[in-house]
Amino acid sequence: MVGALAVAALAAGAVVAVPADVAEAAGPSGSKGGAKVVYLTFDDGPSPAYTPRILSILDRYGVRATFFELGENVAAHPSLTAQVARQGHSVQNHSWSHPDLRRLSGSSFNAQVGDTDRAIRARTGHTPTCLRPPYGAVNGTVRSRAAALGKQVVLWSVDPADWSRPGAAAIRSRVLDNVRPGSVILLHDGGGDRSQTATALPTILSTLKARGYRFATLC
Ligand code: ZN
Fold this sequence. Notes:
By secondary structure, this protein is of the alpha/beta class. The chain contains nine helices and seven strands.
């Protein structure tokens, strides 16, 4: 679990960078410099092409991650969502169809989030407690609507832009050059060709482990 402070800080709109003092406060130890924990997150799945491959890499390294899934993909590939949860990962809410939540009516917002909750619960037995808004697009209305549904808004602090397919080497270096204790790393297992993400992942995991990091799930 991430500390309440970190979630609050992320929810406050730190899309790209979390201030060092906040990131360090994310560690459960409270020690100077923070605990060496990182939170890997995967958005936009599940995807039959990439989610199983990413799951098998995570399994090989004994790493647990958080998957922010789209309800429409859960409905299309329900056994994959069940597999993600069965392998010990956290499955959380990324809306039904990836709209900008700031542009929705209240009833559309509730349908996007509530329908996704129900789809995930049906396949995992757990109702998501966190919502990651598509594009990181948040405002006061999104925050209050999310809170009314019992959701914490969770963004990220390290974004290698893997979705833009900059090359596996760039994804690796962008993560490894920017990670710090308490980092929430944004990657994608759905929404397009994620082969570069899958190729980059083993070195990211082995390097962070060699640096003494442990991995935890958000939410
Ligand atoms: Zn997304």
